[in-house]
Amino acid sequence: MNQLNRKEFILEGLDCANCAMKIESKINELNGVNKATVNFATQILLIEANEAYIDKIVSEAKSIVNKLEPHVIVKERVFNNSKIKKVYILEGLGCANCAKKIENKVNDIKGVDKAFIDFASSKLIIEVSDRKILDRILDEVTTIVKKLEPDVDVLEENKKDSNIKEQDIRERWYNKQSTRLIISAVLFGIAMLSKLSNSIEIILYAISYLLAGREVLLKAGKNIIRGQVFDENFLVVIATIGAFGINEAPEGVAVMLFFQVGEYLQGKAVDHSRKSIASLMDIRPDFANLKIGEKIQRVSPDEVEIGSIIVVKPGEKVPLDGKVIEGKSMVDTSALTGESVPRKVDIGDEVLGGFINTNGLLTVEVTKKFKESTVSKILDLVQNASSKKAPTENFITKFARYYTPIIVFMALAFAIIPPLIIEGASFSQWIYRALVFLVISCPCALVVSIPLGFFGGIGGASKSGVLVKGSNYLEALNNVDIVVFDKTGTLTKGVFKVTEIVAEGDVDKGELLEYTAYAESFSNHPIALSILKEYGKEVNQNEIADYEEISGHGIKVKVKGNEVLAGNKKLMNKENIECQNVETFGTVVHVAINKKYSGYIVISDEIKEDSAQAIKELKNIGVRKTVMLTGDNKVVGNNVGKQLGLDQVHAELLPHQKVEKLEVLDKEKSPKGKLIFVGDGINDAPVLARADVGVAMGGLGSDAAIEAADVVIMTDEPSKLVSGIRIAKRTRKIVWQNIIFALGVKAIVLTLGAFGIATLWEAVFADVGVTVLAVINAMRVMKVEKIK
């Protein structure tokens, strides 16, 4: 079997959703590519390909991007933990040729593994293997830069300042564009309203057209050279020039102006949605306070090694996973779990990267490198979730591939056929109608808004503490028919405690608990530990003798000279001691002292506070059947099922029997329904894998849970499953609103255009206007605080 290699790239400057779809389609056609996806929302290209062809495929992929979108910069995302990446700002860099020279020179520096300059953002990114040489490399870089570009300053990147600078560049572009559009609109108004000679009017219209459509004309010209005919820029140019050709110059200018205003608003809306999604998942820590001796040094979280000591001040994010070794505080876990109530942490407690320290000063020993930390894995999974596309997204991708060519050919037919076969029909009349078809032929409203909707839904779910690994799983949560639960750690807390002590004969409850605690003092079993915890006193093991553990039965031991038997009913029967037949919710430990039955202790696993409510809410949102599979005994299983209102309980199951039972339940689901299994993600991996959607409960800090399931609930609350399903339903509702709205408006305008009722104005609204409205609507999915 050929080994697959996976690479990711940032497509910086990608602002055309239709082009993103074309890039994805073209790369998927390359020989050796297993899968390629372009996430328009995050501008990430993911390529999964045959190891033997990966370099060739990457080269061809870059050529495809360059051909379709020449202004887009392709930058590889590097995930090598052994590499140290340093980013510098080359302030004042304005010469692209000089930037290339600097890049080449820096790559020649001894110790530099890789260096490249992102000219658009003036960033120099350097990768090295040894942190100790960074100061020397910075000196050499500064020397090179000053030699080639004396006016350029080399500054270490400050992440926030850098982001502000990028935003400033984008804002300056918007300001220039708005200025051009305003001047164009003023000239257009003068030409329309003033009584000028025909030649002056045409000149004003032409200037107005060129000001508004300069970028569109340039892009269209480049696309024609590259053979990219079915492009919205080319189609709008043809439509507007066509309007000039049939003596409709005012309408040609107006359409170009309206189109560019729409594109401007669309760009603003997409930028805003990207920022909203980014802020929704803004859980990456910017720095760590590394303690070196008595000094504190601020460093990047990537630079901190396991075992290092870091200090987290009040108001700061915890940068890495670790254990508190000094101090106590309240931490805000909402960024990872969606929980609004702060959590108390003390010495010995675990804290995770992304938590926010609210009041006390914490000293933490780092237990994981940043790349292996929970927050890093969450970010990576959410950012890459769009590679697993929902059926709706796949449908739109296929639909868009055929929609544009079909509409364009229909436009050609409208321009040519009716004037030839309909008596009295003029070419100018039908060419105008054909131009309406051309303008409306771009599927941008769907291609932009639907991925944004799903990505926003995934981001919103993550903010609520529900980590969904792909759009396909988010969509699958809409059709949940059967929910199957594990018991321990899922519906119950998985923490055993003594809930009942019944003493008989000459001993009281205190003596019974003491004798039992002494008998269980050598065991590490959860039952024994819960008895010792309830006893709460120190056990003097010098008073224990002749300890014997009887497998499958219990313990026989001498405590303070008295023979004590502690175990199940089988132990009592084996020793010919009569005991009560106790049926209760929990595990029963029978106790006999000197061959005389002395009573029993009940140890129970508590049901979680919100389990019953979660089952009730699942029924309310349309789940047909709720089932519990457990390895515990039937009495315990049935008691839990009865208390929670479950439809079915299957107890005393071994792991392989759980899979077999799941197979039977899978046959009972409705034709379009989904079966989901909710477990702890560690012991239930086979069942999680077999279900349509595997949900891991309590994944916070659990690597096994995050790896095992399709959906991870980051807290121990079953009710979060209801939240996840509601977010999925809200996402689908908004996505289908956009599909119906976009296709409906386009269908209406196409029909009206065919009958000569709709003008180019309506056609532009059906293209860019609908896109803007669809993007704004898609952003509503991120308002998760309203979903209860």
From TrEMBL:
Residues 5-73, 84-153 form the HMA domain. InterPro entries: ATPase_P-typ_cyto_dom_N, ATPase_P-typ_P_site, ATPase_P-typ_TM_dom_sf, ATPase_P-typ_transduc_dom_A_sf, ATPase_P-type_domA, Cation_Transport_ATPase_IB, HAD-like_sf, HAD_sf. It is a multi-pass membrane protein. GO terms for cellular component: plasma membrane. Pfam families: E1-E2_ATPase (PF00122), HMA (PF00403), Hydrolase (PF00702). It is found in: Cell membrane. PANTHER family: CADMIUM/ZINC-TRANSPORTING ATPASE HMA2-RELATED, CADMIUM_ZINC-TRANSPORTING ATPASE HMA4-RELATED. This is Cadmium-translocating P-type ATPase. It comes from Crassaminicella thermophila. The gene is cadA.
